[in-house]
Specification:
The structure is a single chain. With about 300 residues, this protein is α/β, with parallel strands linked by helices. The protein has a single domain, classed as Ribokinase (UDP-N-acetylmuramoyl-L-alanine:D-glutamate ligase, 3-Layer(aba) Sandwich), CATH 3.40.1190. It is built from ten helices and 13 strands. The strands form two sheets. The chain has a nine-stranded mixed beta sheet, sandwiched between helices. A four-stranded mixed beta sheet has the order 3-2-6-7. A hairpin with a 2-residue loop joins strand 12 and strand 13. The longest helix is centred in the middle third of the chain and has 16 residues.
């Protein structure tokens, strides 16, 4: 088993299934792409560490508490800036609307110095997303330095493009995504994200997978939403159909998907098995509100379901 290290911003979340303008009751939680992946990995029995910065406030304490409660090792700097906040609501068209309050947040002050105490010999995998370098120049420097140190220590580097248009423009983001994709060993992208990096080669998604692989990663995973996913590792190819579920909240499904794939990859499973767990993990998160609360456990993944009620 290889321990995974991931770094990024932990956020407080305020959510409602209505519009915030009129909702009488609000729910509170935590999230953030790397936090979600860390919890997804831990629930599947993978040793994982999350590194980041939080504010000296209730949301910061909640980020640390939730991660530790889920079995994630936490390396957190507590700083004077506030913990970032994400608002999640539903509009009249039934769409989930996300609003960020993270400018000047604790997470955005992440910098390369935060990596000083990391013992890289403890880890086998470094997982990153395209969100962290969007937060600030110092956070981008931390990501670049993490890649450099991980590469020198012989770690496998996993990168999820995870483009966020509300954080930075495609024009600004694309060179950063390209550089990280080229330095990664395992690359995750959705179709729209892949188009940012390699354009749209053809209507055949396998051509997109090939174009991404030509950037350098040995394993490429292309997320196709309700059409499932494709994966290529060397000469091995796999395709998985999406798992049909009654969707409550899709936010966090991509992170759960990544956690499922990595958890099996670390165990030496085939690409087909990695992809099957990934789509199952992504679907599980969609069944309940919250970014990670529905993340599947190893026991649930391997259970034989013969009755919808467990007595």
């Amino acid at each position: 088993m290889k321990r995974v290290l991931t770094l990024g911003e932990g956020l407080g979340i305020i959510r409602t299934a209505e519009t915030l303008a009129t909702a009488a009751h609000l729910g509170a939680g935590v999230g953030g792409a790397e936090l979600n992946v860390a919890i997804g990995l831990a629930r599947l029995g993978t040793d994982v560490t999350w590194l980041g910065r939080v504010g000296a406030d209730g949301l910061g304490r909640r980020v640390i508490r939730e991660l530790r409660a889920e079995g994630v090792d936490v390396v957190a700097q507590v700083v004077d800036q506030p913990t970032g906040l994400l608002l999640k609501e539903r509009d009249a068209l039934g769409r989930t609307v996300i609003t960020y309050h993270r400018s000047g947040s604790a997470g955005s002050t992440l910098n390369a110095a935060d990596l000083a105490g990391v013992d890289w010999s403890r880890y086998g995998v470094l997982h990153l997303t395209g969100i962290t370098p969007a937060l600030s120049d110092s956070a981008a420097s931390a990501v670049s330095e993490a890649v450099r140190r991980a590469r020198n220590a012989g770690l496998t580097i996993s990168f999820d493009v995870n483009h966020r248009s509300r954080l930075w423009s495609a024009q600004t983001a694309t060179p950063v995504h390209l550089a990280l994709a080229a330095q990664s060993d395992v690359l995750f992208a959705g179709l729209d994200e892949a188009a940012l990096v390699v354009g749209d080669p053809t209507s055949d998604p396998w051509d997109t997978v090939k174009a991404l692989a030509e950037l350098g990663p040995s394993t490429v995973v292309l997320k196709l939403g309700d059409r499932g996913a494709l994966a290529r590792s060397g000469t091995e190819r796999a395709r998985a159909s999406a798992v049909r579920v009654e969707v409550v909240d899709t936010v966090g499904a991509g992170d759960a998907f990544v956690a499922g794939f990595l958890a099996e990859l670390i165990r030496g499973r085939s690409v087909t098995e990695c992809l099957e767990t990934a789509v199952a993990a992504g679907a599980a998160v969609c069944r309940v509100p919250g970014d990670w609360e529905g993340a599947i456990t190893r026991a649930e993944l391997e259970a034989e379901v013969t009755d919808p009620v467990v007595r």
